[in-house]
Amino acid sequence: MGKNLKEAMKMLENSQRRPEEESGRKPAPEDIPGPLQGSGQDMVSILQLVQNLMHGDESEEPLSTRVQSIGEQGHMALLGHSLGAYISTLDKEKLRKLTTRILSDTTLWLCRIFRYENGCAYFHEEEREGLAKICRLAIHSRYEDFVVDGFNVLYNKKPVIYLSAAARPGLGQYLCNQLGLPFPCLCRVPCNTMFGSQHQMDVAFLEKLIKDDIERGRLPLLLVANAGTAAVGHTDKIGRLRELCEQYGIWLHVEGVNLATLALGYVSSSVLAATKCHSMTLTPGPWLGLPAVPAVTLYKHDDPALTLVAGLTSNKPADKLRALPLWLSLQYLGLDGIVERIKHACQLSQRLQESLKKVDHIKVLVEDELSSPVVVFRFFQELPGSDPGLKAVPAPNMAPSAVGRERHSCDALNRWLGEQLKQLVPASGLTVMDLEAEGMCVRFSPLTTAAALGTRGEDVDQLVTCIESKLPVLTCTLQLREEFKQEVEATAGLLHVDDPNWPGIGVVRYEHANDDKSSLKSDPEGDKIHAGLLKKLNELESDLTFKMGPEYRSMKSCIYIGMASDDVDVSELVETIAVTAREIEENSRLLENMTEVVRKGIQEAQVQLQKANEERLLEEGVLRQIPVVGSVLNWFSPVQTSQKGRTFNLTAGSLESTEHTYVYKVQGTGVTPPPTPSGARGKPRLPGHKPFRRSVRGSDTVSDTSSVSHIEDLEKMEHLAGGPEHSSLESPSPEQSPEAPTPQASPTEALQNKAQHPEDHHLQVEELESLR
């Protein structure tokens, strides 16, 4: 059986496909094997089908990861499920003995490993199912007539279940749904606000809540404490909570990832106190990297009848066989293997924590620096006027709006940082979460991911290196955000959009002439302009990334500017966006008005040509229009007529005569078209210099500004060097006709001017030499 299972897993994990799938052909519905289509299929074909369904179409998602690598201990856990199905075919007596042995051995081993003496175990697939059974057991223990009277007993004295505000989301609602209790039976205990961790339950406030419930005739039933909260892994003060529960007769249940450290030699006092509670829930599958292994709830109770009624124990062999995968895996790993995996995960957390202490602009949220298996960190930037030792605490004189913008900006940057780190170091198993007090943070919890992903110490070092490489981008982007906003607000035609979820420099929208600012609906004309603007910006090949999307809380298009890795010239960036968008709008208007302009021009040309034909008839006379007579008259007395026509100037939008073209054999210049605006109106760049970068001051190379200024100064000097005589020669006199050519200065006069101004001529030569 084990051999067949290994061969099946090897086949499923293999990347080979069928020939028809390699050729790109999609399997038709009739090609899919099934029980209703002819004869049955062999095992290889069925496993091949399962493999295709598991991996899906990888052409659509080339970066999708395959099934995680399952080690030998994982194969043992999977073998347990197949072995359980085989064992269930034994006769009842042998099945009863075997399942009882498996259940008792697994329970004893878990109680010894995790220091929970004289406990019982309940194995379940859903992690929260064990707590629901424990609540049912507590109800039967406190309400003696519950089996007979049922809900009437609870109605007269309502039970109260206390949950921490830092508990995992949806836990209270799940308990009420499973137990059939109304939501007022839940009491959420706030965390500390003045002293201690902000993720620990406030014990003093809990005691006050218990006293208030007793005075109102309620029954405090159960308290759920955390040995490692779902968010940041902080542990409640379980010792004080246990004393409080013993005082008021409340059932104490503990859950959390930090319970795994009970298997180690050194355990913190707060986690060690969990061994004295009434029940606890363990998840050895993620801790040890075991797939399809059930969770375990350990509890202490002396009445087997109540545990049977509550569903914690069962006489069915199938329920007892749930422990078989864990029974096989624990024997395969042994105590040393279990301790080694948990210890390795804690060392990874300690290694990351020590490394992040040396990194600037990274705040680590750790409860116990010596034994915290969960590391939560975030990027922060010190605000102006804040104390660096307080980790980005805003000054009292800062406006609330500025503090809010800073908080949203840091949240977006931390979300971007977490996503980047997850892609760069996938073996780290990072998660991004939103905390109420701190905001967006990145969590590293190797106890739940390291065994399955195979996280090593080198992965932690690579993670720290990636964090350090991303810090300049984060700090530079955060510093440029306010400058970008000011530049956009000072530029006509641009609107700055505050999008708290965008991690880049900012979001900008171009307001065209027909833009309805009060409307939130989509704008087709604006979408067209922004699409062209995005294409132009991406063609500049800068280090910035540009994207187009709907505006925050609106349907209008905007340009989203990404992260900045270098010192960006924000003024040049904003100017380029404004000029390019204005150019696109003008070109679109020209195209839209072209049809109307051409139509009117053709109508006007037809009218003028008809009028010219009538004038020609009057000049030539009627006799010349008669076919035979007109030819004779034209032979004796030819008429000198000029060819007349009309040309349409699209730039000026006017009609012009073609007589000048036929007489002088040249095209008329008409009205000089205005210069077309260009998106590259910024400063000319040197070779290899990318757009939107600030020029380095004090460099040996000639800067763009200096080159342009030298050329402008040289033109001014050439104009002044000509003197008043040169100016008078260039300007035509009023008596001259417009068509007369402009007199040019002779070489002799030019030499005289140079002789009169030798200093200016020498200065021009020096300027030309410097430019060369």
TrEMBL record:
<keyword id="KW-0663">Pyridoxal phosphate</keyword>
<dbReference type="InterPro" id="IPR002129">
    <property type="entry name" value="PyrdxlP-dep_de-COase"/>
</dbReference>
<feature type="region of interest" description="Disordered">
    <location>
        <begin position="1"/>
        <end position="38"/>
    </location>
</feature>
<feature type="compositionally biased region" description="Polar residues">
    <location>
        <begin position="745"/>
        <end position="755"/>
    </location>
</feature>
<feature type="domain" description="PDXDC1/PDXD2 second">
    <location>
        <begin position="372"/>
        <end position="478"/>
    </location>
</feature>
<feature type="compositionally biased region" description="Basic and acidic residues">
    <location>
        <begin position="756"/>
        <end position="772"/>
    </location>
</feature>
<keyword id="KW-0210">Decarboxylase</keyword>
<feature type="compositionally biased region" description="Low complexity">
    <location>
        <begin position="699"/>
        <end position="709"/>
    </location>
</feature>
<dbReference type="InterPro" id="IPR015424">
    <property type="entry name" value="PyrdxlP-dep_Trfase"/>
</dbReference>
<dbReference type="InterPro" id="IPR050477">
    <property type="entry name" value="GrpII_AminoAcid_Decarb"/>
</dbReference>
<dbReference type="InterPro" id="IPR055103">
    <property type="entry name" value="PDXDC1-like_2nd"/>
</dbReference>
<dbReference type="Pfam" id="PF00282">
    <property type="entry name" value="Pyridoxal_deC"/>
</dbReference>
<keyword id="KW-0456">Lyase</keyword>
<dbReference type="Pfam" id="PF22937">
    <property type="entry name" value="PDXDC1-like_cen2"/>
</dbReference>
<feature type="compositionally biased region" description="Basic and acidic residues">
    <location>
        <begin position="710"/>
        <end position="719"/>
    </location>
</feature>
<feature type="compositionally biased region" description="Low complexity">
    <location>
        <begin position="724"/>
        <end position="743"/>
    </location>
</feature>
<dbReference type="InterPro" id="IPR055102">
    <property type="entry name" value="PDXDC1-like_3rd"/>
</dbReference>
<feature type="domain" description="PDXDC1-like third">
    <location>
        <begin position="484"/>
        <end position="589"/>
    </location>
</feature>
<protein>
    <recommendedName>
        <fullName>Pyridoxal-dependent decarboxylase domain-containing protein 1</fullName>
    </recommendedName>
</protein>
<dbReference type="GO" id="GO:0016831">
    <property type="term" value="F:carboxy-lyase activity"/>
</dbReference>
<dbReference type="Pfam" id="PF22930">
    <property type="entry name" value="PDXDC1-like_cen"/>
</dbReference>
<feature type="region of interest" description="Disordered">
    <location>
        <begin position="667"/>
        <end position="772"/>
    </location>
</feature>
<dbReference type="InterPro" id="IPR015421">
    <property type="entry name" value="PyrdxlP-dep_Trfase_major"/>
</dbReference>
<feature type="compositionally biased region" description="Basic and acidic residues">
    <location>
        <begin position="1"/>
        <end position="29"/>
    </location>
</feature>
<feature type="compositionally biased region" description="Basic residues">
    <location>
        <begin position="682"/>
        <end position="696"/>
    </location>
</feature>
<dbReference type="GO" id="GO:0030170">
    <property type="term" value="F:pyridoxal phosphate binding"/>
</dbReference>
<dbReference type="GO" id="GO:0019752">
    <property type="term" value="P:carboxylic acid metabolic process"/>
</dbReference>
<comment type="similarity">
    <text>Belongs to the group II decarboxylase family.</text>
</comment>
